[in-house]
Specification:
Elements lengths: L1 H19 L3 H17 L1 H22 L3 E10 L6 H8 L16 H6 L3 H8 L2 E4 L2 E4 H6 L24 H18 E4 L7 E8 L2 H22 L2 H32 L12 H34 L3 E5 L6 E3 L3 H29 L1
Antiparallel strand pairs: 1-5, 1-6, 1-7, 2-3, 4-5
Helix pairs in contact: 3-12, 6-8, 6-9, 10-11
């Protein structure tokens, strides 16, 4: 009895092994069976793909998600103290760093491109669009859903922020949110490198390029007007002091020349007091002017070292990269989902028939 069960079990294993190694004839038989099943239940395989295909087509035409991507690669300067900086520091001379405070280092640069004030400043920048002077805000706003709302029909953006109405300010805020969510992407792919990608995606490739360029320019200008503010102020103060000391030096030179032209008796020392005082004032003026000129040159070097920050490594060229799904891709996804749903409904029908 036990031997019979073992033989029966081994025979079942052999049959299963033979079933696994299906021949071409077996595969064709299964396909014919599947086609016959589809012919019998053709309605779900037609109705569901048509419905979901039309739905996908409608979604594709409504969203119009086909966009052009303009990607810039920029490099943020991150340099430490050089050998010349160390040498000057030994003599008590400090010309400052190229990135004081480290504000534009690492991920802070990526975050800087997402600040609301800088994006809104970029949107209110006038650009040359197909030969016309337009604000970027107008180009972005016209493709937004909010632009069709009745409360925003009188929106008119202006370069000067204070001249805008409260409704226009609200529209500008919505444009900023739209740029953050749908258009602008800033990333630092490699944390060990200083390369940053700034890309904008828009239906109009020209708008994508203009917005990317303006954002980079705005961030660069923001660096110049903030991080170099102290160095520029010091430079202006030193220029004023140099001009003032130079006027005093010229006056002392003139007084010393006038006194030297007098025929003074060399035996009368009292008469030479004024001449000696003039010489002392002249020497002091020369020494003071020399120190101010040295500090002025150091201030100029410090300002030049802090000013370069962002350099464009690569610019986008036409044709731009297409991103997003096209209308026919939505149609294919709808047809595929409909076919899958139709097959599942046929399976449920066959399973129900077997149970009953």
């Amino acid at each position: 009895m036990v031997n019979f069960d073992i033989k029966f079990y081994m025979k079942g294993i052999e049959n299963n092994s033979l079933n696994k190694d299906a021949s071409v004839a077996d595969i064709l038989a299964q396909l014919n069976k599947l086609l016959g099943l589809i012919k019998t239940h053709w309605r779900p395989m037609v109705i569901y793909p048509v419905i979901l295909g039309l739905l996908g087509l409608g979604v594709g035409l409504f969203l119009n998600n086909d966009k052009k991507k303009a990607e810039f690669i920029i490099a943020a300067e991150e340099e430490g103290a050089s050998g010349m900086d160390g040498l000057l520091a030994q003599f008590g001379l400090d010309i400052g760093g190229s990135n004081p405070g480290g504000v534009f280092e690492g991920e802070s640069l990526v975050r800087l491109f997402q600040i609301r004030s800088l994006i809104e400043r970029s949107l209110l920048t006038e650009v040359n669009y197909h030969g016309k002077k337009l604000l970027l805000a107008d180009l972005v706003w016209r493709d937004m859903k909010s632009a069709k709302a009745s409360e925003f029909r009188l929106v008119k953006f202006k370069k000067v922020r204070s001249e805008q109405s409260s409704i226009t300010d609200s529209a500008l805020y919505l444009a900023y949110k739209h740029v953050i969510k749908e258009i602008l992407v800033v990333d630092r792919p490699d944390k060990k490198q200083s390369f940053v990608t700034v890309s904008c995606s828009h239906r109009d490739g020209e708008v994508a390029i203009l917005l990317s360029e303006t954002m980079i320019t705005t961030v660069t200008d923001y660096y110049i007007e903030t991080l170099t503010k102290k160095a520029r102020h010091n430079l202006n103060v030193l220029k004023l002091e140099a001009d003032s000391v130079q006027r005093v030096l010229n006056k002392n030179l003139q007084n010393n020349a006038v006194i030297s032209d007098m025929n003074l008796n060399p035996l009368m020392q009292k008469a030479r007091v004024t001449q000696n005082r003039s010489m002392i004032d002249l020497q002091i003026s020369i020494s003071l002017y020399g120190e101010i000129i040295k500090n002025l040159k150091l201030a100029e070097i410090s300002l030049r070292k802090q000013t370069p920050l962002i350099q464009v490594i690569e610019r986008p060229n036409y044709p731009l990269e297409n991103v997003g799904f096209k209308w026919w891709q939505f149609l294919l996804m709808g047809l595929g989902a409909g076919a899958a749903l139709g097959g599942y409904m046929i399976y449920l029908t066959k399973l129900k028939n077997r149970i009953s």
